[in-house]
Write a structure and sequence with these properties.
The complex is a heterodimer. By secondary structure, chain A is an alpha+beta fold. Chain A folds into 2 domains: about 110 residues, Jelly Rolls, CATH 2.60.120; about 35 residues, no CATH class. Chain A is elongated, with a radius of gyration of 19 Å. Chain A starts with a strand and ends with a strand. The mean pLDDT of chain A is about 95. Chain B has 2 domains: about 210 residues, TIM Barrel (Alpha-Beta Barrel), CATH 3.20.20.140; about 90 residues, Immunoglobulin-like, CATH 2.60.40. In chain B, the strands form 3 sheets. A 7-stranded antiparallel sheet of chain B has the order 1-8-9-16-15-12-13, covered by helices on one side. Chain B is globular, with a radius of gyration of 19 Å. Chain B starts with a strand and ends in an 11-residue tail after the last strand. The mean pLDDT of chain B is about 95. The chains are: A alpha+beta, B alpha+beta. At the A-B interface, helix 1, strand 4, strand 5 and strand 7 of A face loops of B.
Amino acid sequence: MKRKELIRVEGLLPRAFHLGHITYTVVLEEPMERLRIVSAFDKHKIEPEHRDELAQACREAIHHYVPLDQVPPAAMDRLLNIPKTEINLSVFFNEELVGCMLKDLTRKEIVLSPEDSTVGFLPFTPRPGVLKIVLHVQNVLNDNTHYTLAVEGD
Amino acid sequence: MKFRRAELHNHSTESDGTMSVAELIDYAVEHRFETLALTDHNTYSGHRKVAGALAGKPLDVILGVETTTFFGHILCLGYGAGSDWMSLNPYAPEGLLKYLKHQGALIGLAHPMCIGEPISVGCQCTMKIHDYSLLDYIEVVNTAAGDTLMGNAQALALWEELLFEGYRLAAVTGKDIHQPPARLENLFTTFAQVDEEADNADGVLQAIRTQKTIISKGPLPYVAAQEGDTVQIQVDNTNPYDSWPEKFGGIAPVMELVTGPGQSQISRDPWNAPFTFQIPASCRCLLVKLYDGTCDYRHLLAVSAPFYPGEAQL
């Protein structure tokens, strides 16, 4: 069966977006054997120009729990390195959840088919109906964070 | 009555865990979890893999989901569906809580007081809950990381505060397993008080529903009897969890009976005999807390299920 491109989008996210969901909806008009979904984004970690600001905010958060001088240097380094941008992804078909990929990956590749699907997703038969892909954007650390989403059907 | 161990917060490769459903089940069997809840983030794709992985093994599995929002994580036990968590209004989250309850889930707040932004975005419960009666439980201890940054002492205090305000909420723990824990010693876990004939996952769910869960590092305190304004407390020290019977002899036992905010009685008698306490007439709810030497979170060993004087619970 010929591969058919269903969605191919990209966008730029500002720091101000911070937390939010971006939904793409497409009507599947014919049965298919499988769907392939690829989402990706860049700027996973804080960029140098904002690093000091983020580190200060982290220290203030830690200080609510424990005096900073009681945090060993190695532990402090680990804590300051935790913040990251995440864009996770859920798939719905006719408003029913097919699955969610919540993993710390800047590139997510998902295959949905009736025989088996990528972990996190139920087996799925692409057929006429409404396919909804939701990007869960969490913690945009840097301006102009670029994301892409592509959905193809076989 | 039996005490059944329950590990109620665990992730597999279906979300961001490193063990497959089958590997997680084998890990739970190896470490005698007795009850394992599968609570992957925002997906129930692993549920259909449980039966095959479980066949014949000495473990019960509770199917669930951790509804992972940007404003806190809601553990949903006995639940296998999606939800429109994306529409959550953090200033009035009751809509989502009602939906999850209506779907039959037992719902609880995961790590509600853990460190928040910018280190941990979305993990702390920042949603403004106005009606805690919509919840069934609070994960008062999450042992995925250190107590301090997980805010465990604060979560326990929150639960107690809500309890004495009149909310009926169970207290549970969670290992929040994403990979095999670095250590399993000296960690709180949950024990459900179940009847002999309900020594299974359903019994655990019923224990949560009726606030009959103990959080403990080994000893199991419970109210054995009530007569008038007197309650009898017993401590079961035979629990093999974390080799408690061997450790028991080396601790300095302290028992605290908490009968209200800022109201408690202390006993430093050994725990090998029943304790009798007289409770105030105004007491609507009481807790038993066990410590090693000092009455503070660092030395806390166990917290009993809440007991409601005058209600038929024994």
